[in-house]
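Quick question about two entries, pasted in order.
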Amino acid sequence: MIPEISSEKQKKLKHVKVYDQLFKKIQDGVYPPGSKLPSEPNLAEQMGVSRMTLRRALALLQEDGLISNIQGKGNYIKELHTISKNFGMEKLQHPFYACYNDEIDDLEVEFRIEPATDAISKNLERKTAAVVISDRWYKFDCVTKGYSLSFIPIETISEYDVDLNDINNLKDFMEDRIYSIASKSSCELSFTTTGNFTAIKYELSHDEMFILILETLYNSNGNVIISTKHYIPLTMFRMHLNVISKLSE
């Protein structure tokens, strides 16, 4: 005998049925990648459910990487990507792009050169006369979505021929080239509420909840070549890891 599902539980599972229906519409191309879903009141009316039920279904779709919510604009269907089974965060790569669960179409970069304080030297695990401090604001559709704060020993700038007179050269170094230079990295993840005021120039999120990724990259001699704090709004954070059994090594 199949046990009956109580009316209370059926009510609780209603958002799952809405999720299934919307998922099928997305898969069938009714809502193609890049398109916008109807407004929540209209969609709730179309689905014959309350807005609370709809919001729970939308939260599941967002959790599964099928839609993204752009504040003030609505819910959009994301491009469907196949997750590579070869690597996740265990590969040496830019952690912001590996963990940010939405699109970025622009990057604003600024920097300054300052004497290294004791705190910065300790963080860089080396004595250095000066440090390049760089701000990076990640944006989509002209709205700032994330922020990175990097500390680069002046020796790194010299050793790897980084041209500080060319902001694009510095940007390329921090965003791409450094990951082919580094021999290893250390990433520490924690929860923080400091993202908005640390980013100074722009508000990253209306919420105060962020995932902080403290990334340190080392060269083949074990020296720190850059240390970066990456701030990702909690609702936009997603991390993929592959764990390999010792038996399959």
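Here is the second entry:
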Amino acid sequence: MPGTHMAYPGIKNNQTRADVIAYLNKQSDHPVNLATAAGPAATTATAAGAAPTGLDSSAPSVKTLLASAAPAKGQAMFQQQCSACHSINKGGANGVGPNLYGVVGAKMFAAAGYSFSSAAKKHATGDWTAHELNEWLYDPMKAVPGTHMAYPGIKNNVARANMIAYLNQQSDHPETFK
């Protein structure tokens, strides 16, 4: 709506948007039947109990970019975009988001002392590899529908590779990306 004063960016994730609409509909004195109102283009949630197989946000691969990534540029981006919610020092406290020290190679959505959303917990099936971080950082809300993280992601492939390289350095045991 051009000219609005609302700065809210919207909900890009189809399932999350549908969940919000369903919730708002329930708050009405005259709720509509969403099954018939949605029409044939409506999307459905993953079948209950279906186990996700890794994150998938349709992110372009950054595998070849990791070899020449610039961790210092990733650090600058982290300070600018992530540090308000995340700390990244060894033994650092969780904030709005978990402390990210040692995230590469760690169990997904399992930071000590941090309570992840149920949506994230459903995807806690492996470790944070460069591939999984690439998928998550590209579009967190698409990678994990229903996540509480509102960060829109990093669409630039080089910037995403730089961030992954920086996160990798913040560890007692950084990995070698091949």
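Reply: The chain is about 35% helix and 0% strand. Confidence is low (pLDDT under 50) at residues 38-52. Hope that helps.
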